[in-house]
Amino acid sequence: MTKEIRLRILEIFRPENRTGTNKTMEKKSEIKLFEQRKVRTVWDPEIEVWYISITDVIEVLTGTDRPRKYWNDLKTKLKRDGSELSEKIGQLKMESSDGKFYKTDVADTEQIFRLIQSIPSPKAEPFKLWLAQLGKERLDEMQDPELTIDRALEQYLKLGYSENWINQRLKSIEIRKELTDEWKRRGMKEGIQFATLTDIITKTWSGKNTKEYKTLKGLKKENLRDNMTNTELILNMLAEASTKDISQATGPKTFDENKTVAEQGGNVAKVARLELEQKTGKNVVTELSAKAGLKKIAAPKR
Fold it and tell me: What angle in degrees, to the nearest 10, is found between the helix axes of 163-185 and 3-12?
């Protein structure tokens, strides 16, 4: 790992610089990996507890493509059997596959351990070990923040990304945080307003909203930016950085004014995209992902 990448990760992952973290210690959403499958989690620093998406756990353990139905059926069975588990389930807003945030059933690790007993799966024991490790890692990171850096890099490398792409991705996280901080200063709210403004930026520069973009790339729960090529990532960064700069220059006060600024920022990157496509004769926005592109480049020529 280069010194530049390590320094950039360290800056992004400092507690005061993480999105969703401030002096009041708000809950922090994170994506964790179990056998290359994503599991949505939320860390509550005040009581030092992980909350985990139940439908993600069910999808990992069962392989079902209808985890919500499975969970609804299981909840009904648990209530019928007199289990108190379903009464202890809470809800937190988590990002869905369409990029928007919805209330999602969650449980802490103790409740998840109990829930697993009701789900027949050969992955139950490995998942229990994973849960135990999850708690240990958080305690370790609180003692040594640099472990967060190593694990963030390790996760991207495990997913098949190059250090060059990771460098770009981390820069995009930094730019995204600067934009969301600016939105907060303008009174915009996380959730629907953030998702709407992001959709406007994406639609303007790429010609597709977030949902259409993810459909093009064949994505469901996966993060769109994690599946962008270098060029797509750079143009998306340009759009978000431009939106932030224009917002700082014009000072929008209402949601509608912020939407106008989002469109203006996205248009800066749109102009760049159209000119690049004209020069190269190739579309920038395609179904190609960063990992697929790397594999294609690495493949020996015959």
Answer: 30
How many Å separate Cα 101 from the centre of its chain? Answer: 11
pLDDT at residue 111, as a whole number = 86
Q: Which of 140, 166, 148, 167 is nearest to 13 (CA)?
A: 148
Query: Distance between CA atoms of 105 and 128, rounded to whole angstroms?
Result: 19
Q: Pairing relation of β-strands 101-108 and 49-53? A: antiparallel
Q: Residue length, the chain?
A: 302
Angle, helices 163-185 vs 146-158, to 10°: value is 120
| Domain spans of the chain, in order of start | 3-154, 162-298
76 compared with 273, residue with greater pLDDT: 273
Cα(246)–Cα(231) distance, integer angstroms: 22
Q: For residue 182, with 0-12 CB atoms within 10 Å meaning exposed, 13-18 middle and 19 or more buried, which class applies?
A: buried
Q: What is the rounded CA–CA span in Å between residue 132 and residue 104?
A: 22
The sign one gets for the Cα dihedral 59, 42, 208, 206 is: negative
Convert the pLDDT of each residue in 16-70 to its tens digit.
444 443 333 345 566 666 767 788 888 776 666 788 899 999 998 998 889 999 9
Q: What pLDDT, on the 0 to 100 scale, is given for residue 145?
A: 46
- Report the C-alpha dihedral over residues 57, 60, 64, 66, rounded to 10 degrees: 40
Number of neighbours of residue 193 by Cβ within 10 angstroms: 16
